[in-house]
Write a structure and sequence with these properties.
Layout (H helix, E strand, L loop, with lengths): L1 E2 L2 H7 L5 E4 L3 H12 L4 E4 L8 H4 L4 E5 L23 E2 L29 H8 L8 E2 L4 E4 L2 E2 L5 H4 L1 H6 L3 E4 L2 E8 L4 E8 L2 E6 L3 E4 L5 H12 L19 E10 L12 E6 L1 H7 L4 E8 L2 H13 L1 H11 L5 E9 L8 E9 L5 E7 L3 H20 L3 E5 L1 H4 L10 E2 L30 E3 L14 H21 L9 E3 L2 E3 L3
Helix pairs in contact: 2-13, 4-13, 9-10
Length: about 500
Amino acid sequence: MIFDSYEAYKQAGFKPRACILGSGPAGTTIARKLGAAGIPVTVLEAGSREFGDESQDFYRGTTVGDHYFDLDITRLRFMGGSSNHWAGWCRVLDKQDFEPKAWAPDTGWPIGRADIEPYLREVHDILELPDFRPDVPISDDIRWVQLIKSPAVRFGEKFADELDLSKNIAVVLNTYATELSGDGRRVTGARLWSNGRDAGAFAADYFIICTGGLENSRLLLWSNQRSNGGVVPNAAALGRYWMEHPTFQGGNAILANYDEFEVDASNEAFFSPTLAAMERLQILNFGIRLIESPYPNVKRLIADLACTAPNMAEWMSDQLGQRLRCAAQLYVAWEQAPLASNRIELSKTDVDHAGVPRLELRWKKSPLERRTLLEGLRLFGATLAQKNLGRVRIADWIGNGGDYPTDEETAGHHHMGGTRMGTDVSKSVVDANCKVHGMDNLYVGGSSVFCTSGQCNPTTTITALACRLGDHLGKVIRSGAGTSNGSRRRHGGEVVSSL
């Protein structure tokens, strides 16, 4: 069932066991899992079925540190969430991404790749993906990897009919929780805002926060402040360890034979380092996207390099009469180290229309990210030269240690961390099952639980984790764990809490 307002929802008398905040990939996936298990669940979606400027305005905020996107354009606030501007690139985090790295503090997950493997077939169906090809070693240091571009599933469109026809799922549009209340052991209720006004209190046995990699932290920070620590009792890491995927053009390559590499339908090829190379150079994971350029670019690049890199130009000229056919652009996206200093805070001066403090994102790339970019390109160039497959020219600003450009991609719009998963309550917010430490009935879904970012787009891993969390919640809810009979009461289908 889909309702356009909280008033319409209340009139239906729907009685949920669980409440999910957000209808993006994580929220919708978890709702579908619970609904299929026969568990009634309410999904609160802050936006409507379509994009709206007034709704989007709630996402305004400020960034302190490195150049970044305006916060109200880097995510979307309507049914389906940020899947509505997803480009569709898919790959699951590598096995090595889950493992701790001695040279990068605070890396490592409490789960491994094997814990999400059982859900990948289901994820392929959700995202409409074929099977992934195995990685192909190019050298001891570099491997060809596959990214698959799905049809860019818009969750709000693909699953709208299913959700509307479901008897176990109620999606309430134009409605969201401005804050949660809690007693330090469980969430006791939520304060709602619907269609531009306060909609009163709401309660359920379980709450699952799936509002995105920025808003999850914002909601929990504000709720914790309002409840004097009653929502996240172990809050040292709340909002911290926020990560992105820095993304820039890293240079150019001249290739002896573009057909040496398997390319996708867009004639692009993708490469990443081996774990051994990462360990030897003490860098993080990265992905190089090789995009073929027209033949005239080869001659122009050789002319540009004739004075600055004569040895490279000589190799290129020798190859021209034989099998040299193309140039390529090299785009690099890479893993960011999890640093507690990269964090989400609440503004002390600016609030949204509902009176909730706006976001202040403090984000800065570290020297380890810079080293990963430079050494990664050198590694790729060395592999091409070693195999006589081509030569790489690294962009001047990278080789010379110049500033990051402000007129390029900048990052992937991938918001990760802030409520990271872990066993140490001083450095994490949720446990291996995405349950908030110390709370019986509060869970978090989405990429805010990521401990590390790897190098690949997060949506595939987000969906796998959501499938896993949906299964876990189904078992927990059916067993009745985490509920408290005295925590709420019902009147005619409307839930009343002590909030």
